[in-house]
Structures are given as structure tokens and as C-alpha cells.
Design goal:
Helix content: 10-25%
Structural class: alpha/beta
Number of helices: 12
Radius of gyration: 23 Å
Distance between the termini: 47 Å
């Protein structure tokens, strides 16, 4: 049995739309598929306040298209706002598919105002302070769309302990003051965040002309980013001869970093921190096993003459409510993303830097990362490591984007001096999880690794 659980708010006006803006919906996939599936993970749904709007939440256990059983938790039985988790136990009637089982879940309620990292914290971090100077440097590309931007935080009054190059993920931006201060600037490091072309702050600067080409790679090769990563490294070197240099990357940023290391070597760094590195196309990432197969064998897509690098692999249909008045931005229609909206409810970010709308994968992006993935596997077959320097790889089994077992398997090809940590409840970006305790644990684990490697 490969059963899953769907959780959904219900009521007269929950604020959720079941077709395209599922703020009140989440699907829990099983941690292990067997005769008695175990989910053992947590996430959140949102609903409008007051019982006349959101009457409760419904949980349905399904196996494929078959609904095994369902039950409701009315809002009158919710714990009070701010209280600890409240446990609920349900014993469904015996059927041919379900016999002698209990279903146990826990619920906690927030009023939606308790952001883990708010707007003021981010705004304060993006400016000079008494101890840190902040600036932004442009790395010019062949075309304007190839421009990259480096955000720089430098120690003012003390000699920096070292420097960190931070490479963001796809559809990502720097929104991590709670991480940067605790792990890097607060420990005496200078920090350089690379917004590579068509991503992050590049759209805010006006270099991305089409909203749906956010994170697009016009060349179809990660070679596009070599001069951008190299430019960020040169920027660090031009400022100071740092004693210690660490590279930190998340998701697609890790693909780009590893590609650079395979092409240029690892001489510019002393260690690496990979946060949920994107090293393999996952069924979770692309929407199904068949699509995953197509992505990993991209020559099939290349054979289609109509699919140039700008071609979008998936287009999102206009919601019925918007057909007469679609949302237009930078020349294209956009569809709001419930996943990004949920994230924004916990972590503030600049909408001009990280999209609040759905961004389709393009052929150019898919080609570029697939090329890097295949090159890494080629190195593995040749029994070559990308680096012998210390590696921290941290990921979560609750990652809704990548399959963690594949991530932890492929990081083995990067280097032997690695520490691998699989968290339980954290999000794809382990530092942007729904529970602040889980975020703190991830920060503490990376901090402990830094100390063990004499990076503190």
C-alpha cells in the first residue's frame, strides 16, 4: 500500500481555492510504503479566521484514486492559539482495505502573525550597521540578461575571520538574516551572496524582461555561470586575502557550484556547505516519474525541433476567475503560487527578487542542470572526486521538492570528506522550515560542523 493523506480546510470562505490557490491544502506522502504506511511529518495549511469562514479541517486517507476513510476536526476542537500540539485519534470502520487501525495526528494553531523572519529584520540586514557594511556589486555578462549581482556584507571594525560565498537556489533570493548572522557575519566572516543571471535580485534590477523567464538559462549550459561564480570569487579576492573561504549553496545553486568546481577546481575554497543540493531530477521536483524519466534523458526533448531553449516545459492554465481579467507582469500572464504565499507568511522576502507566482521550467534551464548532473555521474564512473576538502551536506526527508535519499546518495560523488545530515521535518531549504525549532536545529548542526572543521 502506498497511501497518502490529504488535509484541507473546509467552510463557507476559507480563502483557499481547490483548483489553483490551495492555501488550505496539503498532501502528506508516506515516509515508507508498506502494509501500514507511516507519514510522520508536518506541514501547515491556512484558513480565514473565525468559524463562520473556516469551520475546520478535513483529513482523507487515500490509496491512488481510492479513498480509504476520512474524518473532520471542527474548529471548536482546535487547541487555543499558541498552545502546544493537540493529539487526535480516529478509528475508522473496518472495510476490505482497512481493518483494525487507528489514525493519530496532532494539530497546532497560529494566528498567522508570528513570522519567523519578518520584513523589518530583512530590511535592517540589507543596510549598513555599526559593525557591518553592505553593498551591491554587478558582474556584467555578454548580454544584459546575463548580468549577475553580488550582495556584500563586510566587517567594519575587525579583521574578518574569512569569507563565505553564498549561491542561491532557483526562484530564490537572500531572505535569511536569521541564518547569515548566526552562521557567518556574527562569527566574523564577510558574506558574498551571488544572484546569478535571471535570478534573485536580477529581476529587481530590471535585467529580466519576461516574468516567465525567471531563472532561465538562455544557453542551455551551466558554462553560462562560470564567469559569474568566478567574478564573485575575484570580487572577494580583490577586497582581502581571506585566510578561510567557505562556499555555501542551496538547491540549484549547488548544481552551479559543483559544475564550477569540476571545470575550474577547488583552490579558492577551504570547505563547502550544501543545503539540499539539486543533484538529480526528482519525481517530486518535476511532477511525476514519467516526467522525471524525460528530464533525465533530455535528448528526447532535444529531438523536438519546436523546443528551443526558451520553450516552457509546463504552462499553467488561467484560472476561471481570472479569464476576463488575467494578471499581467513583465509581458506575460502570471498565476499566483500558493506555495510561495505560504512561505511568505513565515519569511518576508522582496517580491521583486523572489517570485510570488508560478515559474515554469524552461528547456534551457533543464538542459543546463541535466548536463551538470551527467558530468558529475561521469566523474563518479571514472572514480574521481570533485573535492577532497570538508563537506557538510544537510537535507530533510520532508523535502517536498527533492527526494532526499537521492540527494544523499549523489553527494557521495562530490567528495569523501563529507558529513551528511538528514533532518526530519525541515523544508526544501532547511533554513526556511515551518517550525522555528527545526530551523534552529539546522543552524546549530551546521555551526557544530564549522567548529569541528576549525571554521569558527
Amino acid at each position: 500500500m502506498n497511501a497518502y493523506v490529504e488535509v484541507e480546510t473546509y467552510g463557507n470562505d476559507t480563502g483557499s481555492n481547490e483548483e489553483w490557490f490551495k492555501m488550505g491544502f496539503h498532501r502528506f506522502l508516506p515516509c515508507r510504503a508498506n502494509n501500514l504506511p507511516v507519514w510522520d511529518s508536518k506541514f501547515f495549511v491556512t484558513g480565514k479566521k473565525e468559524s463562520q469562514n473556516t469551520e475546520g479541517i478535513k483529513l482523507a486517507v487515500k490509496n491512488g484514486d481510492e479513498e480509504l476513510f476520512e474524518f473532520n476536526i471542527p474548529s471548536s476542537e482546535f487547541p487555543e492559539i499558541g498552545e502546544d500540539w493537540k493529539e487526535f485519534t480516529f478509528a475508522p470502520k473496518d472495510t476490505a482495505a482497512v481493518k483494525g487501525v487507528e489514525f493519530v495526528c496532532k494539530v497546532r494553531i497560529s494566528d498567522g502573525t508570528d513570522q519567523i523572519s519578518g520584513k523589518d529584520a530583512l530590511a535592517t540586514f540589507l543596510q549598513d550597521s555599526e559593525t557591518i557594511s553592505y553593498s551591491e556589486e554587478v558582474i556584467e555578462g555578454e548580454l544584459e540578461v546575463d548580468n549577475a549581482l553580488v550582495q556584500c556584507w563586510r566587517q567594519k571594525n575587525t579583521i574578518p575571520k574569512g569569507a563565505v560565498l553564498w549561491i542561491i537556489g532557483r526562484n530564490d533570493c537572500f531572505m535569511h538574516p536569521h541564518v547569515a548572522e548566526k552562521l557567518f557575519t556574527g562569527k566574523g566572516y564577510d558574506l558574498y551572496v551571488l544572484n546569478y543571471s535571471a535570478n534573485g535580485m536580477c529581476r529587481k534590477r530590471g535585467w529580466v524582461k519576461d516574468s516567465l523567464l525567471q531563472c532561465h538559462n538562455r544557453t542551455g549550459s551551466c558554462d553560462l555561470y562560470l564567469d559569474q561564480v568566478g567574478g564573485a570569487i575575484n570580487l572577494m579576492k580583490s577586497y582581502k586575502d581571506y585566510h578561510k573561504k567557505i562556499a555555501y549553496s542551496h538547491s540549484t545553486g549547488s548544481t552551479i557550484l559543483i559544475h564550477y568546481l569540476m571545470k575550474k577546481g577547488d583552490n579558492d575554497f577551504d570547505g563547502f556547505i550544501f543545503n539540499a543540493p539539486f543533484l538529480d531530477w526528482s519525481a517530486d521536483a518535476v511532477g511525476g516519474n514519467l516526467f522525471e524519466f524525460a528530464m533525465e534523458n533530455l535528448k528526447l526533448a532535444d529531438a523536438l525541433s519546436s523546443m528551443n531553449n526558451d520553450t516552457q516545459l509546463k504552462k499553467y492554465p488561467t484560472p476561471d476567475e481570472n479569464k476576463d481579467n488575467p494578471l499581467l507582469y513583465l509581458g506575460s500572464e502570471i498565476i499566483l503560487s500558493h506555495a510561495s504565499s505560504k512561505l511568505f507568511s513565515l519569511y518576508s522576502f522582496d517580491w521583486r527578487a523572489r517570485p510570488l507566482y508560478r515559474v515554469p521550467v524552461t528547456i534551457g534551464f533543464a538542459k543546463s542542470v541535466t548536463e551538470a548532473h551527467k558530468e558529475l555521474m561521469k566523474w563518479k564512473r571514472q572514480k574521481k572526486y570533485v573535492t577532497l576538502k570538508p563537506i557538510m551536506c544537510i537535507a530533510s526527508r520532508s523535502d517536498p521538492v527533492l527526494t532526499t535519499s537521492e540527494t544523499l546518495n549523489r553527494i557521495d560523488a562530490v567528495g569523501p570528506s563529507r558529513c551528511e545530515i538528514e533532518l526530519h521535518d525541515n523544508y526544501h531549504d532547511v533554513f526556511l522550515s515551518i517550525d522555528e525549532k527545526d530551523v534552529t536545529m539546522a543552524i546549530d548542526m551546521v555551526s557544530a560542523w564549522m567548529k569541528s572543521q576549525n571554521f569558527e
